[in-house]
């Protein structure tokens, strides 16, 4: 199986937004990987999932306290 971070890079380069979203969901609470994922999204012009990446990162960093 591929690591979500590497698969995310591929998905963004190839334009597979659905796969990229799935990879973001699997990054979970690893905020270091989330920072890299967000940078990858911006570098590849995938602004449609930047908001989702920020939400996932915010939830991970806040510990899900808002739920």
Fill in the keyword field for this structure.
67 residues; mainly alpha; 4 helices; 72% helix
| Morphology | globular
Global structural class:
mainly alpha
Low-pLDDT segments: none
Overall radius of gyration: 11 Å
Question: How large a portion of the residues is in β-strands, by DSSP E?
Answer: under 5%
Number of DSSP strand runs: 0
What percent of residues adopt helix (DSSP H or I)?
over 70%
Report mean pLDDT, rounded to a whole number.
Answer: 75
**End-to-end C-alpha gap:** 31 Å
Supply the number of structural domains: 1
H/E element sequence? HHHH
**With helices defined by DSSP (H or I, 4 residues minimum), what is the helix count?**
4
Q: Quaternary status of these chains?
A: single chain
Largest sheet composition: none
Describe the model:
- The chain has one domain (4-61).
- The mean pLDDT is 75.
- It has 67 residues and is an all-alpha fold.
- It is globular, with a radius of gyration of 11 Å.
- Helix 1 (4-14) runs antiparallel to helix 2 (17-27) and helix 3 (31-43) runs antiparallel to helix 4.
- Helices cover 72% and strands 0% of the residues.
- The relative contact order is 0.16.
- The longest helix is centred in the middle third of the chain and has 13 residues, at 31-43.
- It has helices at residues 4-14, 17-27, 31-43, 50-62.
